[in-house]
Amino acid sequence: MEAQLPATSIIPRVGGLTLAQWQRLGLAAVLIVAVALPFVVGNYRVFQFTLAMIYAIALLGLNMLTGFNGQFSLGHGAFYAIGAYTTAIMLDRWGIAYGWTIPVAGLVCLVVGFLFGLPALRLEGLYLALATFALALAAPQILKYFEGWTGGVQGIVIIKPAAPFGLPLNEDEWLYFLTLAILIVLFALARNLLRGRVGRAMVAIRDHHIAAETMGVNSALYKSLTFGVSALYTGIAGSLGAIVVQFVAPDSFSIFLSINFLVGSVVGGLATISGAIIGGIFILFVPNMAELVSKAAPGAIYGIFLIVFMYVMPGGIAGSLKMVIHRWFSGNAPAVNAGKVATK
Amino acid sequence: MSAILHTSKLQAFYGRTKALHGLDFEVREGGITTILGANGAGKTTTLRAVCGMIPTQGDVTFNGQSIAGKATEDIVRLGVAQVPDGRGTFVNLTVEENLRLGAFTRKDKAGVLQDFERVFHLFPVLLQRRHQQAGTLSGGEQQMLAIARALMLRPRLMLLDEPSFGLAPLVVQELFAILRAINRDEGVSMLLVEQNASLALELADHAYLLETGRAVLSGTTEEIKRDESVRRSYLGY
Amino acid sequence: MEILVQQIVAGLATGGIYASLALALVMIYQATELVNFAQGEMAMFSTYIAWSLMNVGLPYWAAFFLTIAISLAGGILIQRGIIRLFEKAPILSVVIVFIGLLLIFQSTAGWIFTYLIKPFPSPFPQAAVTLGTVQFGSHDLGALGVTIVVLVLLYVFFRYTSLGLAMRAAAQNPVSSRLVGIRVGWMLALGWGLAAAVGAVAGMMVAHKVFLDPLMMGGILLYAFAAALFGGITSPGGAVVGGLTVGVLENLVGAFVPFVGHELKLTVALVLIIGVLLIKPSGLFGKAVVTRV
Predict the structure, then answer these.
(1) For residue C237, which residues of chain B lie inside 8 Å, CB to CB?
(2) Do C180 and B105 touch (CB under 8 A)?
(3) Per-residue model confidence (pLDDT) at position C261
(4) Mean pLDDT of C83-87
(5) What is the domain extent for residue C121?
(6) Read out DSSP for C91-122?
(7) Is residue C285 part of a domain?
(8) What ipTM is given for this predicted complex?
């Protein structure tokens, strides 16, 4: 067969495999590691990796908005909170099975995100960042205010669900695999969405919104829809987060959660799907490492790290990896636009 | 006559693209040199390169001192005033503030006051519009403001980028008369980039013809005017 | 009626503080089109410096002016040392850098000074001032006075000095500014210095009311954002008017709308910000930044 396809001789290979083949191989390896992981590490680690995956889902949502559509949000913690509280209230107050609460949390966030995204039609990047920053700062207050629903400062305690169908898994392992499955589905959907017509329209709006309009892209609709879908992903993450952590309280959803999300998506690499996973692992483990470096002022260490990181790797980890890999395969510098966001 | 500005093997870059390929030219002390050429030949680039506004290689000497690689503001402080492409007006500031900025680096207050009088004398319309926002001025008035602002530096060398651009013929005549007067009476040397070749060759004593970043012809304006190809392509007779 | 007047004056006093901070934001926005998310934390840190200076025995006003000078120098240093490296970076990278700064200031303050809430003195007498039948807090009146002095000084500086003019020029048109010999980089740095100094004054004035702690500026910064947006983020005069309006509004809503009170303070700011952005994104005095297609 290969002989009939002279084009293959042009495709660069490293170690006899093309880039696409290496990618498939890498993906398979990651999946195998992901499935094997809970049987190798302890329960607390399983819990941590579950959280990292949950963050990855939230980051993917943020990434769609910021990386692919060029809109900033400093307030995705608020959508995460809405998802978490939707699940907590449904479980605790109404006794609904947790499996149902996850999609509902996503839908609620879709609607809220779409509505919040409406002003985004008219706002340039920084203004949206300000509005969402305000949303994130105000979110804990609002949660405390509606005490009857949210339990006020006390929050709501949730009971961890056991594995169904008599599966031989403990609660932590079950939640790990549930999260993994949801993650895979959501990532596959996102990949198809972003590589298709919709994704191209989103990127077109980011890079040249006037040209995109002229070519018939309804930028207003796409922008607020993107905001909605982005919130949906983050809301599902919030819902899973509530179940896994077994507790929601207003102060877990402070501005720092939103900041962490933004940091994770930028550090992981904007406009890359794999960046969300790297980012999720980053925001779970790096602040802890900062604490190891300096018990007294971990925030300062984290802050310094962020500034140095932005200077050294402005395209994020995934962006830099992409560049290295492309260089490996093509032998010279490629045109990389990873992490390219509307510049001032 | 010695050269006040002199470049040797000057190259300039926009990103990775080379826009000047080793240019040698000079402006004589008290003289006017003009650079002619079609759009995209590198005329504006040459002025930018002299002022250190873009990355360059090669040498630029001003008044016997190498200025290659210096910051724009340091070159300006040596007495090089540029009237840039697009006029560079501070549109939100008043006419008077624009002129004050022209004299920003000067410490001699009395001299600055004198120069205010002088430019208002040269361009009476600026006196009328003194407190008006510069952005509300007409194109011709903004061009006058740009030249006046450059004069406020009391420069030794002026770099002029298409001063006739977008102006009515009568205004252009007036403007060039003023430039000639400034050059004659105050000994300010000039490097003039101009689309309007016949006008430029009237004013200047030396000329260079640029094509895609290289000087293809140079000499006194008399010699250049006699050149067959220049006559056909740039002077139209 | 008396209560209304009292509330308005108290509102103007906090409004003046919002106005100062909003002005600091606008100064940096005008030069770089960026909103410094760390402005509040910088002001908080300055206030701790003032507190330390008083702690080692300096009288109030000496500490006050020394803090302003230190903040000015600090702002310049931050711009030269850190922000300058990101001049050509995408907006988002710069936002992350601002967040990094915010974390550094907050965490360092908590580390050096602990998270315990500290009282901060006022240079004005304890007793209330009575005008006619209405009583005013003297700190409120004093803070308002200090704010007015700061604003007038800034106005004179930008309007009448050649350094102020050069700063405005550098913000508007950096290329032309270099061509008249202005060192644009230093003008940006000086802008950061001035913003930090103005923020320091705001911090010292507000700390007496809200007490000093590393988290004290979060809400105030949000109100300053609201103020800057309300007045128009491209307009210094708008920031002042916006600050005063937002201050009075906040106080009146807090006093007369029973269900809002203190618990929803930040929510009021959120509603205000979104309201402004929806109805008139350029604010009262700003130029439209939104590009319509």
Answers:
(1) none
(2) yes
(3) 62
(4) 89
(5) 2-279
(6) HHHHHHHHHHHHHHHHHHHHHHH-SS-B----
(7) no
(8) 0.88
